Amino acid sequence: MISSILIANRGEIACRVIRTARELGIRTIAVFSDADANALHVLEADEAVHIGPAPASESYLVGSKIIEAAKQTGADAIHPGYGFLSENAAFAQSVIDAGIILVGPKPDSINAMGLKDAAKKLMQDAGVPTTPGYLGEDQSSDALKSEADKIGYPVLIKAVAGGGGKGMRKVESSEDFLEALGSCQREAKSSFGDDRVLLEKFITNPRHIEVQVFGDSHGNVVHLFERDCTLQRRHQKVIEEAPAPGMSHEAREAICAAAVRAAQAVNYVGAGTVEFIADGSGPLAADQTWFMEMNTRLQVEHPVTEEITGVDLVEWQLRVAAGEALPLKQDEIEINGWAMEARLYAENPETGFLPSTGKLEILDLPSFVRVDTGVYQGSEVSPFYDPMIAKLIAYGETRDDAREALASACGAVATWPVRNNAGFLTTLLREPAFAEAEVTTGFIEAEGARLTDKPTPSPEGISVVALHLEQEITLVSFSGTTLNPWGQLEGFRLNADQDVESWFSVDGEIVSVIRSEDEDYFEDNLLGTPEGYLLIENGWPYHVTWPQFDAQGAAGASDGAIISPMPGKVIGLFVSEGQSVTSGEKLVTLEAMKMEHNLTAPYDGIVATVSVAQNDQVEEGAALITIEPKTDEA
């Protein structure tokens, strides 16, 4: 067995690997950037090595620094986690050349599956069904548009070297193709250093099914059944579950067998995931399921497979990397129960899921489900990396048991002032369509406005917060006597409960509350903040404070100021001073947390000021552009 391991990653996956390594008695070494000096994975590891500035391109993506850290600390092995260098064949080869054990597949296997076009051709040769599309070498805009027109819309543009939803665009019409292609190519170049793309026919009622496979150096390959990752937003998975609902025994056998053939075709060693797209217009069927790609690494959603099989996939990774055979044969692996995972992100559903950064002054995660996290109360959520706070994983005997447990867990989450998507997740998990497993990958996009509509807080909840605030307030009379105004007889009624009307601010809006003393309300979802209280209901946060009647609002679209909604980098500036713009016209594109965000004109007008330049790094709240409305004379 390996005696020491360096984890070439950060966040929850680094903590996840450390946990299993510690159980096996393996010494752990973390690496960290400037932004992660006090991160949880650094604190939990036996040793930690600084590898550079905050940007991943200067730290976590520099293979030579990772290998040097491993040599410096005497690490036997390197675990790349997922993301960053986990599917980089050149890095994998460098690790091997340095005489260090790589916890992952062979470089040749990564290469074979790393480029989606080549992988699809390989799968076709191995008898694995693939989606129709274009895999050609001609990458000119005209050629790609011509091929897309032949395939028919909607069509999917995918970065050849892509992954994690990056470098992917759905295009509905020929007129939209070139703009979507340009955006996809820029994102692919930024994320993977390769702007080549392939085209696929977009399946109208798609479900995303993937199979966990595992191989060893003795020629054994097994599957650990399937996962359903259909619920997605911007091609990023939101809820994952195992097994897949509606999967017959016959379909499961055929699809999992195809996944094993895919792994065998590239002599696969280690943990991998073979991803399929299925036609969800009817029951899942093998002849309506097609290969999309293979991820040559551990997946974010691996815990749901662990929960239904009882297998520690990280332990298997370490044992296989050390040269051991797979611990179980195929007929020894069984499905027991159901598991679901939700990805808790530092993002605000109320503002279109814009990233939320800053210090986690409040972090309250549920204790009755499995929680995989890389942060703690007091941690900083940085704009430089993926905004994941935690993964919540629930297990149950049935799908409904797991679903309701996960909904309850998401509903109990609290973070502040960093926002999160827990309310959205709770709403999603209790959607009738999801409860009946009648969703496709386009469900969130189609229903997004409704799913992100924050409910009005309950009168009972606000009343309890009002009671807490009122009990904290005292007044000093002219005589110097301290008085509690809420202890006076205002609202007094003989032989009846006392009602008190008060004014409060709820998320910045002033409301009137009539509070009755006999409220019976569960208060575990109430947390104090410096300004007041944070009320959590079904995952949605409500910040209740005393009102500030003379507060001046920040500049916004109403006065023509285009404000940066988050820290980010200006990667596109499309206007100049004096230019006429129309309502909805794209003005500037920001890149934050590896995603592009477009800011548009609030109305027809003239660009009065431009306060930023291309490639500027801007802070949240920074004024970028000012638009003046057109006058009649103009």
Outline the fold blueprint:
Layout lengths: L3 E4 L3 H13 L3 E7 L6 H5 L2 E6 L10 H11 L3 E3 L9 H9 L3 E2 L4 H8 L1 H10 L7 E2 L6 H11 L3 E9 L2 E6 L5 H16 L4 E5 L4 E10 L5 E13 L2 E7 L6 H17 L4 E10 L9 E7 L6 H8 L3 H9 L16 E8 L1 E2 L5 E2 L2 E2 L2 E3 L5 E4 L6 E2 L6 E9 L2 H13 L2 E3 L5 H8 L2 H4 L7 H9 L7 H14 L2 E2 L5 E2 L15 E8 L2 E8 L9 E3 L3 E6 L2 E6 L15 E3 L4 E6 L6 E2 L4 E7 L2 E6 L4 E6 L6 E2 L4 E7 L5
Parallel strand pairs: 1-2, 1-4, 2-3, 4-5
Antiparallel strand pairs: 6-9, 7-8, 7-9, 10-11, 10-13, 11-12, 12-15, 13-14, 15-22, 16-17, 18-21, 19-23, 20-22, 24-25, 26-27, 26-30, 28-29, 29-30, 31-38, 32-34, 32-37, 33-36, 34-35, 36-38
Helix pairs in contact: 4-5, 12-13
Plain-language structure description:
With about 625 residues, the protein is of the alpha+beta class. The protein folds into 6 domains: about 5-105, Rossmann fold (3-Layer(aba) Sandwich), CATH 3.40.50; about 130-200, 2-Layer Sandwich (Dna Ligase, domain 1); about 205-335, ATP-grasp fold, B domain (D-amino Acid Aminotransferase, Chain A, domain 1); about 340-455, D-amino Acid Aminotransferase, Chain A, domain 1 (2-Layer Sandwich); about 460-545, no CATH class; about 555-630, Beta Barrel (OB fold (Dihydrolipoamide Acetyltransferase, E2P)), CATH 2.40.50. It is about 25% helix and about 30% strand. The chain is built from 16 helices and 38 strands. An 8-stranded antiparallel sheet has the order 14-13-10-11-12-15-22-20, sandwiched between helices. A 5-stranded parallel sheet has the order 3-2-1-4-5. The longest helix is centred in the middle third of the chain and has 17 residues, at about 250-265. It is globular, with a radius of gyration of 27 Å. The protein starts with a strand and ends in a 5-residue tail after the last strand. Residues about 475-495 and about 550-560 have low confidence and may be disordered.
